[in-house]
Amino acid sequence: MPLLSLPPAGQPLPSEITPREVWRQRRQLLQAASLGLAGLGASARAATPPGRLPALPAQRSGVAGALVMDKPTAYADVTGYNNFYEFGTDKADPARLAHTLRPRPWTVMVDGACAKPRRFGLEELLSLAPMEDRLYRLRCVEGWSMVIPWVGYSLAELIRRVEPTGNARYVEFISLADKAQMPGVRSSVLDWPYREGLRLDEALHPLTLLAFGLYGEVLPHQNGAPLRLVVPWKYGFKSAKSIVHIRLLDKQPVASWERANPQEYGFYSNVNPQVDHPRWSQATERRIGEDGLFTKKRPTLMFNGYEPQVGQLYAGMDLRRQF
Ligand SMILES: Nc1nc2c(c(=O)[nH]1)N[C@H]1C(S)=C(S)[C@@H](COP(=O)(O)O)O[C@H]1N2
Ligand SMILES: [Mo]
Q1: GO biological process annotations for this chain's record (predicted)?
Q2: 140 labeled part of a ligand binding site
């Protein structure tokens, strides 16, 4: 069984358009990702990167829990079924409309309760720390999930550069909100800009990823180019896309979804099969790409399966009350 399917006639082989070393690393990642499976067979599509975006070379992550054993979700689904309300609320809207996003030039202001607040340019962020390949589950609060091979490094690398003060207890993430680039920002579906937040210890956890790419390439616009957060043990909406501002705070910030409906979207929003969303159960999930007449839903795992790594962050907390 071939590891990789061939692209349609007339399109270059990925191996023809990416440097050898990058290609080798990608294969290693995909092989690591498929450990324990019979082979990539049915997921051959998932194993085929598109080869249209610039490569983002990375090393295999050494962070505990950073490479799950699940089969990666097909590239076409990862980049074609998205939530990015700045480009519309339909799952197909971001892939259709995000071509107007301009991910360069780009800067991120990092300020608030820290000794060295400043603005970082994208080029500096790209070389701030070694890029790592990580394969994470992503669980959306809507009851579906994917498995995505991200490229990036721990957010802690950036946070420690600005030297948080003793007052810093929370971190707020603010996405770009530019009507000229983002047609959805003209609607009032959310109070723009999109805002999210973490407790400082959550933000400093090595699994909390500042992602610049996926499938070995820079992020497609619809996935939050040029950089976004990925917090794999929380519902997907906590992972803000296209971030322009990171603030260190002494008080808990109010996130966009929390502001819109505090009964439904708590600040923590840890994946928890025992705490149902008021409108739907969170006990199971639909893995995108697995749908079939006889496909069973998967049981949702506590902290999305990352409990060994992050469970202690919530010791002593009532996770029903602080949901
Ligand atoms: N700025 C911004 N970030 C966002 C969203 C959004 O609408 N705007 N949607 C969130 C939701 S609900 C999910 S499930 C994930 C989806 O990420 P993906 O499209 O890369 O899979 O992005 C999150 N980050
Ligand atoms: Mo989501």
Answers
A1: protein repair
A2: yes
